[in-house]
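Hi C.,

You asked whether I'd gotten around to modeling the 241-residue construct. I have! Everything is below, sequence then structure, no commentary in between.
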Amino acid sequence: MNSDELGSKEKSKESIGKVASECPITSADESGLDAGKSINSLLDKADEAYQRAEDTFEEYLDTLSPAKRVEHSMKCVAADGYIALSGYQENKPAPFVNVNGEQSLDFLQKHTKQSPDENAVKEYKVRGHYSDKGVKGKHFATHSEKQLLMLHHMDGDHRPIGVTRDQCGDCREAFQSFAYHNDVTVVVRDPNFYRIYQPSGMVEVYDLDRKLVHKTSVDKNGMVEPPSASTVAAHYTGRPW
């Protein structure tokens, strides 16, 4: 893929890069994030990304007919650095990147593989969906934040991501596995929560008041808690983990 195929890219004066090394994660307690200035900085950037995603989505919907607006209102937009629109639509209008589900799926399968000495987090499990169009896992791979995850990794720039719909269970599992197997930190802000996916496999979830509401546990075998949210909207919307 070249830059023309990917679409417009926002220019940034600084690269967050491998966040774990530049902004060490300092766990906060339930009282908030006053002691975790590095976390606050990351969440500020996630807020900016989320606002760009929201604004872009509204601008996009305003270009559509009333019928199309209703249909596309169920889609999702993710930002930052690039702006991605969920779904199979080809030749997406600017500023959306053109990443198809098979590209994203191939990337996830290659970058969440489990090696013999990595056992804290399982590799990403490809799930089928009735709209996969002949390729198992293609539907979930079109989710907008997964498109950005791939592009950010290609750039070596794992900046915080803002996404206009709650992360589903599949995306949470993919991001947890990706952060662990690639030794990076990834921050995602959705309408209800911030999630900090850490290289250890641990995930910290903060509400919009920046209070810690969930931190993944580790079982007696050393396995980090996977997400309890499913891929059904009613089972992941508003659920921290």
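If it helps when you're writing up: The chain is about 35% helix and 10% strand.

Thanks,
B.
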